[in-house]
Amino acid sequence: MSWQAYVDTSLVGTGHIDKAAIISIAGDSTWASTAGFTLAANEMKVISDIVKGDAGAKDKAFADGLYIAGDRFVMARAEDGTIYARKVGITSPEKRPRGLTSSQGRDGIAVAKTNQAILVGHHNENQQGGNANQAVQKLADYLVGVNY
């Protein structure tokens, strides 16, 4: 299966992810992505550093946020080669959906590292973060099992 087929079928095709990318473990190239979901070179490098265990990169992302495709996300978890982050919400209290603080949002990112690749899945407000995480992790587990 091609890398693009994994994005289209095994990530977006689950219905739990609306945009996705597969990047190199070095964080220096995109192997496949959903149209319009473009990660900048510096964004890929930071993701790579975090999933490979760079404590400084992880601490900086927790403090300053993680940027994915130009959007800022608040780190919720980064451990064992995975990242989960939520999109920063609207900061003006009167414009915020009920119950959300300025650091919360409904969109999220699930990231998982394999031996050679990093999977990045985005879910929107109509999709559940837990299901998105499972979809990304399921593909990561499969790829690790076939030595990718």
From TrEMBL:
It comes from the Eukaryota. GO terms for molecular function: actin monomer binding. This is Profilin. Keywords: Actin-binding, Cytoplasm, Cytoskeleton. Its main location: cytoplasm. Belongs to the profilin family. InterPro entries: PFN (IPR048278), PFN_euk (IPR005455), PFN_sf (IPR036140), Profilin_CS (IPR027310). It is found in: Cytoplasm, Cytoskeleton. It comes from Colletotrichum noveboracense. GO terms for cellular component: cell cortex; cytoskeleton.
